[in-house]
Design brief:
Keywords: Membrane, Transmembrane, Transmembrane helix. The chain crosses the membrane at residues 6-31. The chain is mostly helical. It has helices at residues 7-48, 73-91. The N and C termini lie far apart (71 Å).
Length: 92
């Protein structure tokens, strides 16, 4: 043990290490003990409800409505002009 180190910090570190090991051991024991009971209860609820979780909303079968707008030839030309301008700016 180094001479310049007091006994108090060494006891504190040892106490924290022992407390951490005990905490992990108790946590593992509790999780193992209750794991089977919770798993069995969840499986029973899932089987009774038909495999669905009530907390999740029902999903739509198809996607959202797609909007489509017909452009006039003048609008198509204006859009093509803008698209060319943007691509020319990137190349420059």
């Amino acid at each position: 043990m180094p001479e310049h180190v007091s006994i108090l910090p060494l006891v504190g570190v040892a106490t924290l290490a022992v407390a951490a090991v005990i905490w992990v051991a108790v946590l593992v024991r509790v999780l193992r003990r209750d794991g089977e009971a919770h798993r069995a209860r969840f499986m029973e609820l899932a089987r009774r409800r038909g495999g669905r979780l009530r907390g999740l909303p029902h999903q739509r079968r198809k996607g959202p409505h797609v909007e489509h707008v017909e452009l006039t030839p003048a609008e198509q030309d204006a859009f093509a002009f803008l698209a060319r301008q943007f691509t020319d700016d990137r190349l420059a």
